[in-house]
Batch of 2 targets.
Target 1
Amino acid sequence: MELLDATLAKIQPVDDAFLAKAQAKLDNKTKPLGSLGRLEEMARRFAAINENLSPETGKKVIFTFAGDHGIVEEGVSLFPKEVTPQMVLNFLRGGAGVNVLARHVGAEVRVVDIGVDYDFDPAPGLIIRKVAKGTRNFAKGSAMTREEAVQAIEVGIALADLAKSEGVSMLGTGEMGIGNTSPSSAIIAALSGCSVREVTHRGTGINDSVLEHKISVIEAGLALNRPDPEDPLDVLAKVGGLEIAGIAGLVLGAAANRIPVVVDGFISTAGALIACEMHPHVRDYLFAAHASVEVGHRMMLERIGAEPILDLQLRLGEGTGAALAMGLIDASVKVLNEMATFAEAGVAEG
């Protein structure tokens, strides 16, 4: 708990005065006021997080956390859990969706084995920080102990701390874990009080009968474990996932180190939501990459108070949406840094 407690103590709100300074700089560019819309919002937030009116965006890293889930035993997913390590190996070969899109925007993908039920050989791009070989089945008991949840959060914090020391300018979250929409739905249901049916969708593409089964399994898990909505760590430990905990830690660490963090879809946002529930100022450092097809995602974003940058009907995860959004954030900061002022361009102001 020591690292977690120290990290929570470091998190400060973003300075509203710096947001205003960044907007004033944008208002002096050769354009009508506010005419670049949400690009201006992204640029001013990025500058204020950095407390720098000419911030850097060069070094971008997406951490894709991988972990298995005991709930898969209940038949809630279209794919078997063996797909989790198979996809990790695909990431390491550079062949997955997140690899392609990260290359497109100039971001590095780092894969974190935080809880895969498989022993990987060391490989470039793989960070082995295994807390356990998957979670336990939360339909039969707690997914993790509280200590395991804290350990996984602290893995994410340590990675954010390392990124700060490396001069990383922007972090992205991603995940891989067969069955992980079930704990994500359970988390938002537990925290919000919404019904499981309102926040549960098809994940990898399950049919109507499997969806009904998935809803009943999650309902049973919540009834059995009774996670405390006033204690986000309790919710995470009882019905969450190791990769979700790692993402929560990365987001907390990003906020403590004043690094903008681009949060991917439904599962990543479950981690970000836990982080925001642990500290109210974390949301100042988040960029919500996109609106997932998963129905519970909108409720998560509303609870965090984040407006998604993109809506492309994505439901892949991995960090794919985060990569795409990073490209737009990068573009917004280039407007702030490179666009001419009225005086520089010799253009009359309106």
Target 2
Amino acid sequence: MPADEGAIKETIASDYDVGFQEVQRRILGAAEKRGYRSQVLFALKMALEEALVNAIKHGNKNDKGKRVLVEASFSPQQAEISIEDEGPGFDRKSVPDPLAEENLEKPSGRGILLIESYMTKVFWENGGRRVRMIKQP
């Protein structure tokens, strides 16, 4: 992740009430401070929230003893956000397409679809424990 004076690196508990909203606020505030358009801020908000929820719920299985590492950096060319959990990971290719006819009624896979739809590039790394998301304004 490229370094800059406004880079954010924080570890939060797997708890929706502790650190979750604060790290979101800091990241979105940093993006807004750099003049990112409202459409880009909305995309970052949606992808960030989905990635954090996935890390806590699916990765760390709501285990409040496990942590989520959050990193973000910003430049005029792009915002880059990484979310990494302590769970077992997953294979992105094994997640069924939520838009396929047989999956329309199933609740899973939609967060990944949103992340990949709103961000310019998405990389599933470290055995599926880390998502690295890039948004080019």
